[in-house]
Write a structure and sequence with these properties.
Elements (H helix, E strand, L loop, with lengths): L13 H12 L8 E7 L8 E6 L12 H15 L6 E7 L9 E7 L13 H13 L10 E2 L18 E6 L4 E6 L18 E6 L6 H20 L3 H8 L1 E6 L7 E16 L2 E12 L14 H10 L6
Parallel strand pairs: 8-11
Antiparallel strand pairs: 1-2, 1-3, 3-4, 5-6, 6-7, 7-8, 9-10, 10-11
Length: 317
């Protein structure tokens, strides 16, 4: 016997969600008079929830966090229903002013363009790359395709730098070679925030006459690794701005006699990126003896870092 799929089943609606939630939200913690919960659907593999109960003065009620699970289940039911296009659900609850009456609950399922993640082929990525290249062409010749690492980009076009670009540019003059990261300031891939990535780019200056091509490649790949650390860190650019210079990390033996890396402020900024400008951060490898007798107990060992740079005659204002 062939089974017939039922087509008369009523879809789960906002009204159904209101009825289901009212029974639960009315069991609010003592003193709560209102509540709001905001839940987004999965955007590029990530969903979010915020909100909670409120007292009459607007302050947050510490209890009632279990409501998040209930709201998430409601969102999943609305998604499964497929009767409307949405990516955000906002639940409001207000306690009834009449004793023994149920509170007022509203459920709004909306489509918010602002939280739609950028796709893997967004034109904004190339716009950022062109802005960086135009900046560096002021300072020298910029050949194509120096160093790039793309093997770990995911389906959203995210590399370890959370954007599609994870590479290093080479900027040459007759007497100087500058290596610069090219991608830390590319806007996030698969994420909606209006930010130029981690809001900085790194650079280091070398004397090409004293280095082999293999050594130059080693320093370029070091910049890739430093970029990974900056992207994985928390507001490194802000810490550099605050302290002027920070002792950032140690180097492996292959870079001997250099043993440490200092990140410091530079006066220049890369303009015309999709969400404004970003600062440059100078990378300076140093030998251990340059800070051997300096106090490194302050945050980021910034005093020692500034001392080492000043001994080299570098401005760290």
């Amino acid at each position: 016997m062939k089974l017939k799929l039922r087509t008369d089943m009523k879809a789960y609606s906002n009204s159904d969600a209101v009825r289901e939630l009212r029974l639960i939200l009315d069991k609010a913690p003592g003193g709560a008079v209102s509540g709001e919960w905001i839940s987004t659907t999965e955007q590029a593999g990530v969903s979010s929830q915020s909100g909670g109960y409120r007292y009459a003065d607007g302050s947050h009620v510490a209890e009632g966090d279990n409501i998040f699970q209930t709201v998430r289940q409601i969102v999943e039911k609305l998604e499964a229903s497929r009767t409307q296009r949405f990516n955000k659900v906002i639940v409001h609850w207000a306690k009834s002013k009449i004793p023994l009456m149920r509170g007022r609950v509203t459920v709004d399922a909306i489509f918010d363009e602002a939280i739609v993640p950028r796709g893997p082929d967004s034109t904004i990525y190339e716009a950022a790359a062109l802005a960086r290249r135009a900046f560096w062409e002021i300072y020298g010749d910029v050949p194509d395709g120096f160093i790039a690492e793309r093997g770990d980009a995911n389906v959203h076009n995210q590399t370890n730098w959370f954007g599609p670009h994870r590479r290093v540019l080479s900027i040459r003059t007759h007497s100087k070679l500058t290596l610069a990261t090219d991608g830390l300031s590319t806007p996030w891939a698969g994420i909606a925030e209006p930010e130029n990535g981690v809001e900085c780019e790194l650079f280091m200056e070398l004397d090409p006459s004293a280095m082999t091509s293999n050594q130059i490649d080693d320093w370029a790949h070091l910049l890739i690794g430093l970029g990974d650390l900056v992207a994985d860190g928390f507001q490194v650019a802000a810490d550099v701005e605050k302290h002027r210079a920070i002792l950032f990390c140690s180097l492996t033996d292959e870079f001997s006699p250099m043993t440490r890396v200092i990140l410091s402020r530079d006066s220049r900024r890369i303009e015309n990126l999709p969400f404004g400008s970003v600062p440059l951060i100078r990378v300076t490898p140093i030998a251990e003896e340059e800070i051997a007798h300096q106090d490194q107990s302050d945050e980021w060992a910034s005093s020692a870092a500034r001392y080492a740079l000043s001994e080299r005659g570098m401005d760290v204002k």
